[in-house]
Design goal:
With 111 residues, this protein is of the alpha+beta class. The chain has a single domain, classed as Histidine kinase-like ATPase, C-terminal domain (Heat Shock Protein 90, 2-Layer Sandwich), CATH 3.30.565. The protein has 3 helices and 4 strands. It has helices spanning 12-29, 61-64, 78-85; strands at residues 32-41, 44-53, 88-94, 98-106. Strands 1-2-4-3 form a 4-stranded antiparallel beta sheet. Helix 1 crosses helix 3.
Length: 111
């Protein structure tokens, strides 16, 4: 099996979502990193993406995950859109310390 996982990009919203995490790091925290790793769990293969920064943190994670919510005047599609694309999604944030977003996408095996 190839080590490649494809996430369909079929509309402008998909492109916005894919780049929004990196944009959010730059915009809100000024610096951070995104780590991509292949993972296996039994016979499943996938990718884990961890985006982390040491920025101001997110005071209300629940609100930040709502479509249309933005503190920057943007579309508010970044975190909610990323959550829709992924199979597993977690946001950990501490105000004044930073934010870590961990996402997993499992490969859909052909039947």
């Amino acid at each position: 099996m190839p080590d490649e996982l494809l996430v369909p990009i079929a509309s402008d919203v998909d492109v916005v979502t894919a780049r929004q995490l990196a944009r959010n790091i730059l915009m809100y925290a000024r610096r951070g990193e995104i780590a991509l790793n292949l993972i296996t769990n039994g016979d499943r293969q996938g990718v884990v993406i961890v985006a982390r920064d040491q920025g101001p943190g997110i005071p209300d994670v629940g609100r930040a995950l709502q479509d249309g919510y933005s503190t920057s005047g943007g579309l508010g599609l970044g975190l909610p859109g990323a959550r829709r694309l992924m199979d597993e999604f977690d946001v950990s944030s501490v105000v004044g310390k930073g934010t870590t977003v961990t996402m997993k996408k499992w490969r859909q095996l052909a039947s």
